């Protein structure tokens, strides 16, 4: 698409739509088999969708990620211009100047999406789910978004998970946590050692920084795994989810 003309007008229309009043995100839901007593918000990577992430997980596990008591919400990021795609339109949670850990964050778009996702959290609270019964996490960009959302805005959630994700070296998350005095939700991280898009070292550095700022973490390196979901990590994630959101019989 040409930068000028129709393409340019289309970008302006989408930007105006994205920045207009509170967005209600499209959501793909997996309902619990039993009584709903906890919720999990799972954010997709750049260019994907909630339905796409659910389908990918189902393909890897040969079944849905599902629980007896936990509702899973897979929201879809609204389309917006994305700088790493030369301004092309994509379903991304926020913009990046480039995909690296040593450049500034695009904080304006991150903060705007934190507010949109806060509305989603508040919907769960209004439905009767306590904040400490909500988990937030995601894959790649979704994991980064989850860390911003939880550690800067919702430190009373049950936990955070980030798969193949990282924070920039000068992240606002680090800056906010330096001023923090409250107990923070635990972070679960997995990262493939063969990841060429989001380097394993970036994930490790993120984990080390958050640990130094008072976050309890679990970090699993996945030998030979690229920028992808693996069955081993999803099984580890499922077990961790149940430690953070146990069912009623497990001492809720």
UniProtKB/TrEMBL annotation:
Keyword Hydrolase: yes
GO biological process: cGAS/STING signaling pathway; negative regulation of cGAS/STING signaling pathway
Matching Gene3D superfamilies: alpha/beta hydrolase
Domain of life: Eukaryota
Any Pfam family matching the protein: Abhydrolase_2
UniProt keyword annotations, A-Z: Hydrolase
UniProt GO molecular function: carboxylic ester hydrolase activity; palmitoyl-(protein) hydrolase activity
UniProt domain Phospholipase/carboxylesterase/thioesterase: residue ranges: 32-241
Assigned EC number: 3.1.2.22
Protein's UniProt keywords contain Glycosyltransferase: no
EC class (word): hydrolase
GO cellular component terms, A-Z: cytosol
Entries under InterPro entries matching the protein: AB_hydrolase_fold, LYPA1-2/EST-like, PLipase/COase/thioEstase
Family: Belongs to the AB hydrolase superfamily. AB hydrolase 2 family.
Official protein name in the record: palmitoyl-protein hydrolase
Organism whose genome encodes this protein: Erinaceus europaeus
Gene of this entry: LYPLAL1
């Amino acid at each position: 698409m040409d930068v000028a003309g129709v393409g340019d007008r289309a970008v302006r229309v989408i930007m105006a739509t994205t920045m207009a009043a509170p967005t209600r995100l499209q959501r793909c839901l997996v309902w619990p088999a039993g009584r709903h007593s906890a919720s999990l918000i799972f954010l997709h990577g750049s260019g994907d969708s909630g339905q796409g992430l659910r389908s990918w997980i189902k393909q890897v596990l040969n079944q849905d990620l599902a629980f007896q008591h936990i509702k899973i919400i897979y929201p879809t990021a609204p389309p917006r211009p994305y700088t790493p795609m030369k301004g092309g339109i994509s379903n991304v949670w926020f913009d990046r100047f480039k995909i690296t850990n040593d450049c500034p964050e695009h904080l304006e778009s991150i903060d705007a999406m934190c507010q949109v996702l806060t509305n989603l959290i508040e919907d769960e609270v209004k439905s009767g789910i306590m904040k400490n019964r909500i988990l937030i996490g995601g894959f790649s960009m979704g994991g980064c978004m989850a860390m911003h959302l939880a550690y800067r805005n919702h430190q009373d959630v049950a936990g955070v998970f980030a798969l193949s994700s990282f924070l920039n070296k000068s992240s606002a998350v680090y800056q906010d946590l330096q001023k923090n005095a409250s107990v923070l939700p635990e972070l679960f991280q997995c990262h493939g050692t063969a990841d060429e898009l989001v380097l394993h070292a970036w994930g490790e550095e993120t984990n080390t920084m958050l640990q130094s700022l008072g976050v309890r973490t679990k970090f699993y390196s996945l030998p030979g795994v690229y920028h992808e979901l693996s069955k081993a990590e999803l099984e580890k994630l499922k077990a961790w989810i149940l430690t953070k959101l146990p069912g009623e019989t497990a001492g809720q």
